[in-house]
Amino acid sequence: MVSEKAYWKVGGEARLEIGERSLLMGILNVTPDSFSDGGEHLQLFAAVARAESMFQEGAAIVDIGGESTRPGFEPVSFEEEVARVVPVIRELRSRRSDCILSIDTSKAVVAEAALEAGANIVNDVNGFLSDPQLAEVAAKYRAGVVLMRNGRSGEKEGSVLDRIRESWERSLEIAFAAGVKEPAIVLDPGVGFGTTRQEDLEILRGLDLLRSFGFPLLLGTSRKRITAEPLGLPVDLRLEATIATTVAGVAAGVELFRVHDVAENARAVCMADLIYRGNDLDE
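^ that's the sequence the OP posted. Answer follows.
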């Protein structure tokens, strides 16, 4: 459970202190079709350079994905997904032995290849519900895990907050049965995954209630439709709205944020942490 001094265990002896300062997870899509940056980082040198820059800009974690999860995405084979992400992970691990890397996948075979190559965290947008063997892989490598609630495959009736909690309960049951330990787990409410924009607002307004579930939270709103549709914005003009949701998350006590624009969000959370987490100014 989250405490004043809490740590997220992310593989082996590695851990991240959470709660005192907001942590950013930089998004690195090694895909041709992601909704906002598809095709920008397909080449190894471009992907590695972008990851390096995100660490320099203040990312605590870089989250590497080889298959788009945008609405209507085209699935790729596990062979193609592995071929996209593993070389990037290996190169970054060789350059930065202590960096924290996450693999964004819902396939156990991809996760195992990524963890073997040096990833620390498994970020599953299906929360172990589509491939329960993913939980066994995560437990085997003692990886950190992000379990996201995904409403695209259909959910029971009820409020969006109730549906999120019900999904998390099922994900946690699978995780614990496979041997994943509680300090390795972070939960993600899945903003934009099978939700309306009104429901996305309800999630953002209910973050303090979701934190009462007892696990650290990761919020992923970066450039999503909730940052666009209310203002009629294209992808390249969603930064300020994204930062507004990030700051709202800090105010609600959310610990981690998955973002595209690391430098700008880093400056925002630094100030928001001073206000809402009660951090002191560095002397």
